[in-house]
Amino acid sequence: MIATVLLGLALSACNHVSTDAHDIHDVDTCIICNMGIHNVQAATQIVMEDGTAEKFDDIGCLVQFMIENPDLAPTFHTAYANGYDTQEWFDMTEGAFVYHKDIVTPMGNGVISFSTVEAAESYVETYEPGEILLYGELEAHDWNSF
Description:
By secondary structure, the chain is of the alpha+beta class. 23% of the residues lie in helices and 21% in strands. The strands form two sheets. The protein has a four-stranded antiparallel beta sheet. A three-stranded antiparallel beta sheet has the order 6-5-7. The longest helix has 13 residues, at 2-14.
């Protein structure tokens, strides 16, 4: 009986799918622009309900993927960005983003990610002017303004 319970627990543990952010490796490429993801600080990813991840070299590529694939939205678990300030993955719905035409990013769109609104505000106050965007504003952002 105990062996059966332990076997059941072991098998159920095997069915757990991690929806945590995936590591970026040297061989990873952006699904939109096919560029290698070499600047992890600017990288983003969408982890799906099944635990797989679509990886992007730049936040603009992630937004383009979301716009072009609305039918996949129900399979999205979490969109992650790598914090410009922390170098750690965070749920993009909880973060903030700074746009300025002079900010250098892999695709040249000038948008960088921060894990909190306060961190984004601090960046703008300290380094340069910029527009703070929240997650819900990313699709409406003029990605051609760079």
